[in-house]
Amino acid sequence: MLHLLDVLASGVHDTKNQLFIAEAMVTATEARTQTDLSEIRYAFETAAARLSQTLATYHLLRHGSSISITPVIISDLCEEAGLAQKHHLAASHIELEIDCQVDEAWPLDRDLVTDALNNAVQNAARHARSLIRLSAFSTGEGICLRVEDDGPGFSSLPPASGTGLLALYPEISVPK
What confidence tens digit (pLDDT) does each residue in 34-62 have? Predict the structure, then answer.
């Protein structure tokens, strides 16, 4: 199994390198033609970052490492996600509203939750008309991080139980 993981990791690494080369070519074209190609560069950067995360997962699997649970200030986490998406959302004329009602630290894996929040915001950006809302609030059982957009949504969404649609709900709950 590990040999197969090594082959896959090699392919992911090579693909990531090719994305960096393509990004450099776009940057050079942008400078030469005085054309704003920042959204193309953003797409390359995002894809390369996902591949880097895939390689990090490979490293965890290969070396038997585990997730890193540390105290994380939730309001900082929300602001970090907002900063990471700021340029992309501005280019798409989408406002990100952050409503974090949790100021204290919670034990979680910062990288995993940040990745999930960034992915949820990026997904919302594909469907939003002009607004995305990132909220964090306490529940009786922990905290909830939620990403909502003002897009059209689903005309009717069946209950989550037994439908396989739970993954579509852009919400992360962290138990106490």
Answer: 998 888 888 888 888 888 788 777 777 77
In angstroms, what CA-CA distances link 154 with 44, 157, 158, 169? 29, 6, 10, 11
The structure tokens 């992360």 sit at: 172
How far CA 6 is from CA of 24, 54, 105, 126, 142, in Å, comes to 27, 12, 37, 33, 38
Assigned token pair, 96: 């990100």
Q: How far apart are CA 64 and CA 17, in angstroms?
A: 26
Q: Which of 135, 30, 130, 1 is nearest to 75 (CA)?
A: 135
- For the ranges 33-42, 70-79, 119-128, which has the lowest average pLDDT? 119-128
Q: Strand, helix or coil at 176?
A: coil
84 φ, ψ to 5°? -65, -30
